[in-house]
Amino acid sequence: MFQESYIECKVKKGITAAKGFKSVGIHCGVKRVKKDLALIVSDVPATAAGVFTLNKVQAAPVLVCKEHLMNNNSFRAIVCNSGNANACTGEKGYKDAVAMANETASVLGISPQEVFVSSTGVIGEKLPIEKITTGIKRAAAHLSESGYLSAAEAIMTTDTFAKSHETSFLVNGIEVNIGGISKGSGMIHPNMATMLGFVTTDAAISKSTLQDLLKATCDKTFNRIIVDGDTSTNDMVIMLANGASGVTIEEGTDEYKLFEEELFELLKKLSIDIVKDGEGATKVIEITVEGALTDADAEKAARTVALSPLVKTAIHGEDANWGRILAAVGYSGIEFNPDKFEITINEIPILKENYFVTLPNVVANQTLKPEKINLLLELHGGNGKATCWTCDFSEEYVKINGSYRT
Amino acid sequence: MFQESYIECKVKKGITAAKGFKSVGIHCGVKRVKKDLALIVSDVPATAAGVFTLNKVQAAPVLVCKEHLMNNNSFRAIVCNSGNANACTGEKGYKDAVAMANETASVLGISPQEVFVSSTGVIGEKLPIEKITTGIKRAAAHLSESGYLSAAEAIMTTDTFAKSHETSFLVNGIEVNIGGISKGSGMIHPNMATMLGFVTTDAAISKSTLQDLLKATCDKTFNRIIVDGDTSTNDMVIMLANGASGVTIEEGTDEYKLFEEELFELLKKLSIDIVKDGEGATKVIEITVEGALTDADAEKAARTVALSPLVKTAIHGEDANWGRILAAVGYSGIEFNPDKFEITINEIPILKENYFVTLPNVVANQTLKPEKINLLLELHGGNGKATCWTCDFSEEYVKINGSYRT
Q1: Which residues of A touch B306 (CB under 8 A)?
Q2: What is the pTM of this model?
Q3: What are chain A's domains?
Q4: pLDDT tens digits, residue range A301-344?
């Protein structure tokens, strides 16, 4: 129901916006018809960073990526299949993930250690590895600077639109680019809604700086979107920095700050697209908690509200039910004074201190009409602040989840 | 859709099964038509115990009950209205809760400190206190040993059936009784789904022993039922022990153990009735985790599975999706080895170690046909064990929650 990003990504270069990157997405046969294999390659060696799922059950490609990231400083490619998660597949699964790296390295003439491997799809089924290795050969032959959309499409599972964004800015007069693609639509279908993000930049950034930067930025973007709270076995965000722009970004400089801001805005767009694509979602909800004792408290409260089925169904029904929101903050476990609690929806105050209801219900409900909802919760207890994003909760979600196989 | 408990409570004495207790439920005008005021009274002074919501937002009656419990050793009555939670109502709300205790004390000729006050219903609206105090007078005139069903009905909000159970057993040849009523049906309607439990016994038990016993038993019953994870501002369980049986229960004795078991079974029934009554629920799911490192770990895992919208919708759709269950345990935060994970549904193993799927999907799905689902998750990592209860998640839940006002 949100087509905006799809249209946007048609006219942009996404993952290949950064100089020296090529990509492609093809159909190799894991899925019946749709594209299911993406390849992203840097012309020259790049540094890399990765952020991975905290689920104790980690899919084989996650393990392989972590090993490669830990043991190497130079990287060239990301290969990703959709349609099968290669998770809970034991030894065979691990071998298959290694085989994907090996095949990619072989056709590109690089080392397997320079390749990141990713999978997304059904859990517990063995990978049709021959189809994938054959596919990798074919994909490599079609790598191009205009392969951004096909790559974005090839990592989709239950996603209803491709998620692709980019940004371009000047550092001392020289153009620097960051581009990225993402996938995810709430864990709706049979464990197929892994969250993936692949990001490229033509800035030069040291491996350790890039890792800190990616981790910190993911903590405020990909880790702040909440669809249903379920965390997948395959989630990962990988970033490559190849230096092709000639600009180096070092920690503590003004350029670093600028780069950080641009990366944040880009990952935020890639993240919010995932929320928009939440199964049955009709609204994107930005929840900001201010005035908590600490930022951590603010995040805890915002997350609890974002997870509450009661709040999400009320917003779906365009019902400005402040009691549900207050009760959710109440059981989030943070310290605050309920008497001072205030709620503003899309810049209109609906609850002020001492439970003062500013508007009749029917009027307050109007604030929930738009597709984008800004929920501001003011605790008046300190300077702690945090924002997270979620979507509303519709009958569609349950319908699809209970009966996707029939 | 579950009428069984309703039929059961028609032929039992519930809250008045214990000797020396009378109760009644009437309509006093908070609700339009249905009963909305319950009174439970002991003929003689009783000891009492209470377990209260951990929500930071605590309704006025919760505050009043805690004060009375802390400052007194002798108790006689519980008064409870439904239809209005008297929560987030400021000073006026506190005065109203005190007024309910005062009026009850006045008509019964006891001290206000001997009265527990409870409310359940809409948050944020002032109590129509005159209707309630007038109602208390009328209710007191109708107290009787056969008033158990009307009391159970008068504390209902969105509940679709009254919840009332009792147990009777011999201690050294003398009959001892425990009875109780509960309410709650998942936090569905506008914060009206507070969980309440009122329990009476004719055993004599010291206040401190009773408190320990009630707390420990609630931790394994009322605190182990999960409908949607939202915790209300008004939740409470109150227990009165009046000694009318002539039997004294002291800690460390065989009688204590027996009493503890009987209380556990009773509170379990009262709790499971709440799960059964979860909005749109079609199945009760008992989730037992075994083989965790600790009991606390087992509980954490069981709760996470019980809260997963993905697991709950899959069970609703009768889809034995083991990947969703394993992934939920994976993100519960506990230590375990996924390779050793096993799942048994209604005594039929569907997943064995090393992700070995024992049955074809269509056959495994048959295990989810019954209305009562026993989900046993074996981690093979230690002796930690815990059980909790939840219900499935249907389209009805969302439909009702998003549109209850229209």
Answers
A1: none
A2: 0.83
A3: 4-276 (3.60.70.12), 284-403 (3.10.20.340)
A4: 999 999 887 888 889 989 998 988 998 999 898 999 999 999 99
